[in-house]
Each structure stands twice: as C-alpha cells, then as structure tokens.
C-alpha cells in the first residue's frame, strides 16, 4: 500500500496540474476531473506498486536459493523420456 501511494500521488498531482493548466478551471473542478481520469490509471499503478514493493522486499531481505539435489537422489527420479510399459 505504501508503494501504491508513493506512485499514485505524483501521478494524480500531475493529472490535476495538467487539467488545471489546460482548462483554467477552478482547482477543485480540476481535481474532480483528474480523479475520474486517474481511475483509468489505477490498475497500472497497483500492478507496478506490487513490482516495486517486491523488489524492495528482496533487496532488504533476500531469500537464499534452496539447495540443489545431487547424487543418487537425483538419478533415482524417473525421467520423462522413459517408455511406458505395455
């Protein structure tokens, strides 16, 4: 949620500023119009905020890769290339 606010507030501010400068309407009217326009951008902001949050999480607390199997345990597993029995 923090990442979506961090991405969403500047986008909304830019939309309000663009509407206000382009039309010359009152700031409150520009805010309402920008809010309606902002609804079209919300899915993208939500998606990329999750990406940003995951990258920050992995940067702060990386998860080590699980150990790989080696030796007889790996060779005991059946392979996809084996032929079925008849």
Question: What would you say this structure looks like, in words?
Answer:
There is one protein chain. With 86 residues, the protein is mostly helical. It has a domain at 2-60. Helices cover 67% and strands 0% of the residues. It has four helices and no strands. The chain has helices at residues 2-23, 27-38, 42-60, 72-76. The longest helix is centred in the first third of the chain and has 22 residues, at 2-23. The protein is elongated and about 80 Å long. The N and C termini lie far apart (57 Å). The relative contact order is 0.12. The model has no long low-confidence stretch (mean pLDDT 85).
Could you give a quick summary of the protein structure above?
With 86 residues, the chain is mainly alpha-helical.
Question: What is the topological layout?
Answer:
Layout: H1 2-23, H2 27-38, H3 42-60, H4 72-76
Helix pairs in contact: 1-2, 1-3
The topology string of helices and strands comes to HHHH
Largest sheet: none
Radius of gyration: 26 Å
What's the helical proportion of residues? 55-70%
Mean pLDDT across all residues, rounded?
85
Count every helix, treating DSSP H or I runs of 4 or more residues as helices: 4
What percent of residues are in strands?
A: under 5%
Structural class by helix and strand composition: mainly alpha
């Amino acid at each position: 949620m923090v990442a979506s606010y961090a991405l969403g507030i500047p986008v909304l501010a830019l939309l309000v500023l663009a509407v206000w400068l382009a039309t010359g309407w009152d700031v409150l009217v520009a805010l309402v119009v920008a809010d309606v326009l902002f609804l079209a951008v919300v899915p993208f902001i939500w998606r990329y905020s999750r990406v940003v949050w995951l990258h920050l999480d992995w940067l702060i607390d990386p998860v080590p890769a699980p150990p790989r199997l080696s030796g007889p345990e790996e060779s005991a597993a059946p392979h996809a290339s084996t032929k079925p029995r008849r």
